[in-house]
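Hey,
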Amino acid sequence: MKKILENIALILGTILISFTFILTIIYNTLISTDWYERVYISRIPVALYCIYLIVLLILIANYPILKKINTKIVLSFSLILFILAGLYLVFNADPYLRNADQMWVWNAVKNINNGNYVDFEKGQYLNAHPLQLGLVTFERLIATFSENITFLYFLNLLFNIGSIILLWLISKIVYENTVVQNLTAIISVLFTPLLFNTLFVYGNVYGLTFLLGAVYTQLLSLNKKDKKRIIYGICTVTLAGMAYLVKPNFEIGIVAIAIVYFLAIFRKKHYIILALGVLLVIPTVNITLGKIYSYEVNKNISLSGGIPKLTYVVMGLGEDSNGRIGWYTGYNDRAFSDNNYNTDKAEKLAKKDLRIRIDYLKKHKTYTRRIFGLKLISTWTDSTYQSIWNGPLPTWGGKINTDIMRIIYVKNGESKLYKFIRYGSVLIVWTIFLFSIICTLLYLMGKMNIDENYLLYAVIFFIGGFIFHTFWETKSQYVYQYTASLIPVASVGLYKVMDFIWNRIESLRSK
């Protein structure tokens, strides 16, 4: 039964990853740098296919070198380059927060730390978005050390370094091999969202690091014995709770962790405790935050209040005048404010609008196929995952302090450097998707032995993210964590292809 369930998940995941890969080899999306966040979809330049083939051939040709170089040296050298690039961004970026969620959360942090609870009042930010209280709580702790925005950038850099190290450590459990670990280090450092999201002061960066930490300790808990298993299990639950605290969307990863534990029950029944423990962090965090702030603010605070979740589904199925499908339109905010900030009334409106929208989509099937296709393309084919867009754009009020920053954050990605980053990132994304597919297929065919727990986690996490953002409000910045989590899997797949080719070459030479 366990094997059947695993194979169903892996087959479904392979289909979805393959579909996403096909989208990325045909289309590329650019997001406008103005306030309208327009979506520009274009075809991949033909020359890029030739360039990718050349890059792969060069990489394969260097397989003997990758086998010989100590993996810690490769990781250290890669991290040094990453840190230097990151520090350049940190100390040359305009220390400001864009007039969006990241600024409103930070303003709430400073207000609450100063004893001002205006953000909880009717119609204010935390009244509308109580689920942000977890991030507010985490950033309140940070603010006790410093309220300097450059410090927040630097902290993001440290978290992103942590994510790279965790991916590398995970790869050692998945398939301990010098080439695999070297490839994981190189691909992780070249995956642009991990670098450019250094300037995105929001819960995504913190949450990904905490989630990867939870997955790493889960793998250890599944591979260790006795007391160590218990200790790592507790660490998994704690880190999963931290991931959810700073970014509730990471509940998809938490569910994936729980599923892996549930499947482990077939081997050891006591894993049911860890599976339930991981799932319980979600209501535990919500209830705890509600009680803490109800006491502090001296009024009833519930994380189930505010803007109804259903409004995000209505928004996720909608289309705006800029041709964006399922992206933010402000419908959620309007539904809440137009109903006098009453959650129940806003939810009734959302139910009504959702029924109308679904009826329309049912009657117009050609239109429905088109808009879902466009939504998936705009979500998954921005090779930078809006990580540069999240930075100090001049069109959003950011100041540019150096020539290099100016050509990176140029309007609508018109500079040669931006295009190099954009299309270079396409090659990295292709590598992650293509070789993740190969790795999963080899495992399904019984051609390879790897730690199936992480493979299952990464694939289930991707499935969850794909389905969620097919119907929920979307942006390409929301999905980079699903691609990043595939890096250790892709590294194994690429290693297997390189090893196969070189073994064939050696066998031909010996004849």
